[in-house]
């Protein structure tokens, strides 16, 4: 077992980071145009660390990996409010050749995502080179998708989940109502969560936010119900997929509406979304009984909402702003991982 340790870097770590950056980028095959990483100096790295920060990975106490951090506003991918998203930008992602294939990069990426979540950012971005397919595959495996390309420069991004507490049914409805503000025709929302988790309650909030007609209730006797808009917006299609074989059948539903023209909300069990392609919001509702009280009545019924935006549709959508989600409570200490 090796001792692998990743922590946020201090300005005094600049020399260690520059050593790793030079060793890693110096070992790359020559690229045209060449990268600029070898021009980094202790001074330039120290300035970057003082401004926004960085990560230093150590293996058995030796510098093994480095990342410089920056914070940037969203780039325009066709969304209407890209400036409302804010991203952690990873620069100079480096693993010393001596410490390759030991999980150093993976541990650093995990730590970077924790930093982004703790700072209340929407996601993580970086640029990679098209000539390095193994590098692109590394990011692809970790959920990073290509969002743009200029020549051989590939822009990659990963949205982070948004997590909220919903202590009461009214909070759950409120999440739905706020979510409705960004929903538009053609959108698909998947609600996963155990029996009674609050899926229908959240859908009621979406219905209220969209101003649709009819009471949103558990679709017990029908698989799907169409709620037309009262304000010339999209209709809400509310589906109970427990009774469907899977989402492959969604298109086969005999609805009085085309899914391209409606907001479709599907209640279902966990795991059914796996293997599904395309844009969607995956909403996972979970319930845990807190150990706050000694008696059953005293015990808190904790409900959490986790929203995972999937696909380019959601890249620029400022979910945190819309949902009023702040940074995570309590910035975590240094992450430690071991191979
Ligand atoms: N955040 C919450 N806190 C406390 N109670 C809640 C919360 N959200 C919903 N409830 C209550 O939990 C009960 C079940 O909610 P709901 O019917 O929305 O769950 P569901 O996930 O749709 O259930 P099913 O699996 O039967 O479809 C309702 O009485 C609702 O008022
Ligand atoms: Mg329900």
Q: Could you name the key traits of this structure?
A:
7 helices, alpha/beta, Rossmann fold, disordered C terminus, binds magnesium ion, Aminopeptidase, 339 residues, GNAT_dom, seven-stranded mixed sheet, 2 domains, binds adenosine-5'-triphosphate, elongated
How would you briefly describe this protein structure?
The chain has 339 residues and is of the alpha/beta class.
Account of the protein in words:
With 339 residues, this protein is an alpha/beta fold. It folds into 2 domains: 4-159, Gcn5-related N-acetyltransferase (GNAT) (Aminopeptidase), CATH 3.40.630.30; 162-323, P-loop containing nucleotide triphosphate hydrolases (Rossmann fold). 22% of the residues lie in helices and 29% in strands. It contains 7 helices and 14 strands. It has helices spanning 14-26, 42-51, 104-118, 133-141, 169-180, 199-210, 319-323; strands at residues 4-8, 54-59, 62-73, 86-95, 123-129, 145-150, 153-159, 162-165, 188-192, 224-227, 235-240, 262-268, 280-289, 301-310. The strands form 2 sheets. A 7-stranded mixed sheet has the order 1-2-3-4-5-7-6, with helices on both faces. A hairpin with a 7-residue loop joins strand 10 (224-227) and strand 11. The radius of gyration is 23 Å and the shape is elongated. Residues 329-339 have low confidence and may be disordered. The structure holds adenosine-5'-triphosphate (ATP) and magnesium ion. Residues 166, 168-169, 171-172, 193, 195-201, 218, 267, 301, 303 line the site of adenosine-5'-triphosphate.
